[in-house]
Design goal:
Length: about 700
């Protein structure tokens, strides 16, 4: 990328330019229309209607005025340099317009124009040229093929989204950043309908310059934004997004994300639409989890979580206490909490006894059922809720009061009782499942309660707050190990060569030797003592077991000689042209747990490490965990302990505890090796790795590497 001539390439300069984009003091509209229904007229109409306080400069050589504002014939004729320019001209005129704006020194341009990289190679060439011109002059571009951006706090509406005709967002703290224009505007419209206040809405389009990651960084730096909602179809410049998401986590700003393209068909559609690499979905999940981003599948989930997150309460030690007027609702809530992994500890025994002393037929365990008796004695609502909060010590409280929260005979009295409890515990997350008119529910919202009609939706949102809290409180990670320079061989290595290379960087294997003759094999086996494994060695046979190229439990001179000849014969028969380099004789390890350690180079996020149980477990159970490379031993330990099969390593049912420390060190070293090896390394499979009993180490019993083109 060319360094801008007029703006220093620094983080401070970038932050300043993006702030200028979000909070412009002047806006030029190139291709301005007097018709508020046209693309070039909508932004002007929206800003005039909402009272934008900055200067609006319509540019239209064919009119003296546009929507009552003085119009200018060209960019050069503008009375001042605009902070932001909206470009609503045909693709054929876009380059000329961008050049004029860049030379004038505009801060940024929102390119509504379409017909570029999303359409053709010529369009891509034109898009690249626009980007080059803008970058050389330090001007930022959003788009092309973008629906623009808006900031309700300053009434800046640099968008032609028709959804704004249904209602303008109220100023708030939630920023929506979307790669899709239409879906971003849909999210905005649904947010408006649900009363969610917005600090920004950005639709990135083709991302010729500014990407999803840049826009995330912009709203992370924005003091008015506290919650970030993302819609993504594919990732350009992933390093920018990763850095921005990590900054969001460190700033305590929750990020909820809808990333589409999980299915094969969906993935192909996303790639075609955005000209982006979608990457592997399981990898994407792992990276987002690492960064503290909560991924959702629906708009409903996204906005539920974003709305509750505006309360600013993220209990890392989240537990749920439930007060209900319905036993059935209590079961529904309990099921939802279990599905989310949200703990619902029982009330203390003493507190349960105290509540049954007050109401003998109450169910006070958790959920705490106050029963319909509270209709006769409204003070029970306060007594029971107070006990749940005070005695239960739960970080989050969910009250199921349904229509009693608004009915004429109960609503105001119940509200008063609950409000009294809420005021005593400002550090707790209070949510109500209630039904009523919007005005009635707003009264509860104003009292500090978040309202959900559906209790299951409420549980999912509450669980998300705890996940954010855990991410925000995560301690700094240990540094990844330094493995030194890695020089890959010219050709894909054999198993023995791969093990030798890995051993130089702290990744151990069992004692072994490559033997050219049966005599050498006998000597090697004798030196190792006990039982050995024998494997064919050939750079042309990577999956040895598929041709019968692996022999286990070989012991004694006769068995070794016969094994050598058997392997050579099988290899010649299965792959006649294979280059045979002998037989590998290795000490057969016993008493350990078979694991798999691997590296896969993801096209988006680079090398990803994998850990799981080896052998049949990895193929049948798919019980593996992924993490972006490199990482330290603390992360490696977390990975090892996170799989469902971890008890097999931790001493379940009298098994010996495996050497987790050695296993974690190997995994960490492997992650550092993968990064140091560079992009030519596409994968490593260490399967099995024997995790020996505690204190006896971990050893790779097989190793396969694959290489690709260096890009």
């Amino acid at each position: 990328m060319t360094i801008p001539k007029t703006a220093p390439n620094t983080a401070a300069a970038s932050k300043s330019s993006l702030s200028r984009l979000l909070n412009p003091r002047s806006v030029a509209v190139i291709g301005a229309s007097d018709d508020p229904a046209r693309i070039g007229g909508k932004p002007i109409a929206y800003m005039l209607k909402q009272g934008y306080a900055g200067q609006i400069y319509p540019v239209n050589p064919n009119r003296e005025t546009v929507q009552g504002l003085k119009a200018y014939p060209s960019v050069q004729a503008l009375p001042e340099t605009p902070d932001v320019a909206i470009v609503a001209v045909p693709a054929s005129a876009a380059l000329e317009t961008v050049t004029a704006l860049a030379e004038r020194g505009a801060g940024g341009a929102l390119l509504f124009s379409a017909g570029f990289a999303e359409m053709s190679k010529e369009g891509a060439r034109l898009q690249d040229e626009m980007t080059r011109v803008a970058t050389e002059h330090g001007m930022r571009l959003l788009g092309p093929n973008s629906l623009g951006m808006l900031n309700p706090l300053v009434h800046f509406y640099g968008s032609f989204a028709t959804g704004l005709e249904l209602g303008f967002p109220k100023p708030g703290n939630v920023a929506i950043v979307s790669q899709s224009g239409a879906y971003g505007a849909h999210l905005m419209t649904v947010a408006v309908a649900n009363g969610i206040g917005l600090s920004a809405v950005v639709m990135t389009g083709n991302e010729a310059d500014l990407t999803l990651g840049d826009m995330v960084q912009m709203v992370v730096d924005d003091p008015n934004t506290t919650v970030i909602a993302l819609y993504s179809e594919g990732i350009r410049r992933p390093e920018v997004l990763v850095r921005a998401l990590e900054q969001a986590r460190l700033a305590g700003k929750p990020v909820v994300m809808m990333k589409v393209g999980r299915s094969v068909v969906g993935g192909a559609a996303a790639q075609s639409h955005t000209a982006s690499i979608a990457g592997d979905d399981r990898v994407f999940d792992a990276v987002m989890s690492e960064l503290g981003v909560l991924r959702v599948e629906t708009t409903e989930q996204m906005l539920d979580i974003a709305r509750l997150a505006t309360r600013g309460l993220y209990p890392a030690d989240n537990t749920l206490g439930v007060i209900t007027v319905s036993g059935g609702a209590g079961v529904i809530i309990s099921d939802a909490a279990e599905a989310c992994g949200l703990p619902m500890p029982a009330m203390p025994i003493a507190a349960q006894k105290a509540l049954t002393d007050v109401l003998p037929y109450a169910a006070p365990r958790n959920p705490v059922d106050v029963t319909a008796q509270f209709l006769n004695d409204m003070s029970l609502a306060r007594t029971f809720t107070e006990s749940v909060v005070r005695d239960g010590g739960y970080r989050s409280i969910l009250g199921f009061f349904t229509y009693t929260a608004s009915a004429a005979s109960t609503g105001q009295r119940l509200r008063a009782e609950l409000k009294h409890v809420r005021a005593q515990f400002p550090d707790r997350l209070f949510v109500l499942s209630a039904i009523g008119t919007p005005a009635q529910m707003q009264e509860y919202e104003d009292d500090g309660f978040a309202i959900f009609e559906d209790p299951s939706r409420a549980v999912k949102a509450i669980s998300a707050m705890g996940q954010f809290g855990q991410a925000f409180e995560r301690k700094p990670r240990l540094p990844a190990p330094t493995v030194g320079t890695v020089e890959l061989p010219d050709q894909v290595p054999t198993e023995a060569q791969a093990k030798t290379l890995l051993a130089q960087h702290g990744i151990a294997s069992a004692p072994e030797m490559v033997c050219d003759t049966s005599d050498e094999a006998v000597k090697a086996a004798s030196a190792m003592g006990g039982t050995v494994v024998m494997k064919i060695v050939s750079p042309d046979i990577l999956h040895k077991s598929e041709i019968g190229g692996v022999l286990l439990d070989i012991e004694g001179e006769k068995a070794v000689r016969e094994g050598f000849e058997t392997l050579m014969q099988r290899a010649r028969a299965a792959v006649p042209n294979a280059r045979l380099q002998g037989v590998l004789v290795a000490k057969q390890l016993k008493g350990g747990v078979e694991c798999i350690l691997g590296i896969h180079r993801d096209p988006v996020f680079g090398p990803m490490a994998m850990f799981g149980l080896g052998g049949i477990f990895v193929e049948i159970m798919q019980d593996v965990v992924l993490h972006r490379c490199p990482f330290g031993e603390d992360v490696a330990q977390e990975m090892i302990r996170s799989i469902k099969g971890a008890p097999l390593l931790l001493g379940a049912r009298g098994r010996p505890v495996a050497d987790i420390k050695a296993l974690a060190k190997m995994l960490s070293n492997l992650s550092a090796f993968a990064v140091a090896a560079g992009p030519r390394l596409t994968s490593i499979d260490l399967n099995p790795v024997f995790a020996m009993p505690e204190g006896q180490g971990a050893f790779a019993a097989d190793a396969v590497m694959t290489f690709g083109d260096e890009t």
